[in-house]
UniProtKB/TrEMBL annotation:
Residue stretches making up the Cation efflux protein transmembrane domain: 35-223
GO molecular function: monoatomic cation transmembrane transporter activity
Source organism of this protein record: Clostridium fungisolvens
Protein name: Ferrous-iron efflux pump FieF
Signal peptide: none
Length: 393
């Protein structure tokens, strides 16, 4: 199938390798939507005719499920087009989040359809109607299955290519369609061997799949709109890219905002040696912001944090302190370590990054007490000033 997928991409997506381009992303989304409309519309017509002919609530329910899938594909096309609109005065970061909003609205529509068909299916259980087996109808239903499998794999393929949460969610939904279509086809086959009114029961199961699909899609989009954590692969790639520039030695306080697929705004603190001329560091930071911003399609803002990296005393103290506090539950990392004062009157100042379960005032107070006790045992004459940071990814 990969050969067919690549052929479609090369045929209908101009500059298909430039997946960071918003125009290319729109072309991918449009292609996925059009293929979805064609396949789902074909299955819809096929199932609707068979469902009405056999008076099967299960087949008719799945037919209308495919109607929502076809509408989903149409929404995919529209949302990719709208989300690609350029930024303006009212929306300085563009319209990328429209993709999430339209998917959320579609999830609500799926839930409405699911509720309606579970009601119809329960009524069919209470008042059963005979569904006769028809060989031609069974063969037609079985032939629809490969189409659904093709759509699932194709949507997942292009969704991974452009890292689109909407297309990946659509692929997950189409996988549910494969399971549902298999169950409906199987129930039709079973009617040949039994008079048990299985149609209504399968209709309930199909409806539950519809409800589950709508709930999962809605939950995912709602979490994204509220502000979910960015993908770990993106965070790691961003950090590794920044520290690859010399003389940057480390990164912390990274915050990433999502303004739609492929649209990120990020800020971070970059640790640099204190004795490098400020104009030289400034030029490096400017270069990092521009080059990484263009490469990863992110608006990047970097704050410089000068640190003393060549002092044997500071290096030794930092290593010793972190060796002890890293054993304390909740401590992930330490940064901005510095020593203030002379002789015996010295103060250790540093920031500690806490794990997510410790994001509360009581937990911070508890961890701070343990850190202060640990440092007091190590260096009784030293004072300590501890600041807490959180990871937003």
């Amino acid at each position: 199938m990969k050969f067919i997928f690549d052929f479609l991409i090369k045929r209908f997506v101009k500059d298909y390798e430039n997946v960071n381009s918003q125009n290319v992303r729109q072309s991918y989304g449009s292609l996925g939507g059009k293929v979805g409309i064609i396949i789902n519309s074909s299955i819809l017509i096929l199932e609707l005719v068979i469902g009405l002919f056999l008076n099967s609530i299960a087949i008719t329910a799945d037919a209308f499920h495919n109607l929502t899938d076809a509408l989903s594909s149409l929404i995919t096309i529209v949302s990719f087009k709208l989300s690609n609109r350029p930024a303006d005065d009212k929306h300085p970061f563009g319209y990328g989040r429209i993709e999430y909003l339209t998917a959320l609205l579609f999830a609500a529509a799926i839930l409405v359809v699911g509720v309606e068909f579970i009601r119809s299916s329960v009524l069919r259980i209470l008042h059963p109607v005979e569904v006769p087996f028809n060989l031609v109808s069974f063969i037609c239903m079985a032939c629809a299955l490969p189409l659904q499998i093709f759509l699932n794999r194709f949507t997942n393929y292009i969704g991974n290519k452009i890292n689109s949460s909407a297309l990946k969610a659509s692929a997950l939904e189409s996988f549910t369609d494969i399971l549902v279509l298999s169950m409906v086809t199987l129930s039709l086959l079973i009617t040949r061997f039994t008079s048990f009114p299985i149609d209504g029961y399968v209709g309930v199961i199909v409806s539950l799949f519809i409800l589950h699909s709508g709930f999962e899609l809605g939950k995912e989009m709602l979490n994204t709109i509220i502000g979910s954590a960015p993908e770990k692969e993106f965070v790691d790639a961003l950090i590794n890219s920044v520290v690859s520039y010399k003389p940057i030695t480390g990164v912390h306080d990274l915050v990433i905002h999502n303004y739609g697929p492929g649209r990120y705004i990020a800020s971070l603190h970059a640790e640099v040696p204190h004795d490098v001329p400020i104009m030289e560091i400034h030029d490096v930071i400017d270069k990092v912001e521009k080059e990484i911003g263009h490469k990863m399609n992110v608006y990047l803002s970097i704050h410089m944090d000068p640190v003393k990296v060549d002092s044997p005393e500071v290096i030794k103290l930092k290593k010793k302190v972190f060796e002890h506090i890293s054993k304390i539950d909740g401590v992930l990392s330490m940064h901005d370590f510095r020593v203030v004062g002379d002789c015996e009157e010295k103060t250790l100042i540093f920031d500690v990054v806490l794990d997510k379960p410790y994001f509360s005032e009581d937990k911070e107070k508890e961890v701070k007490g343990k850190i202060e006790s640990s440092i007091e045992n190590l260096y009784p004459s030293y004072k300590s000033i501890i600041n807490f940071d959180r990871e937003f990814y």
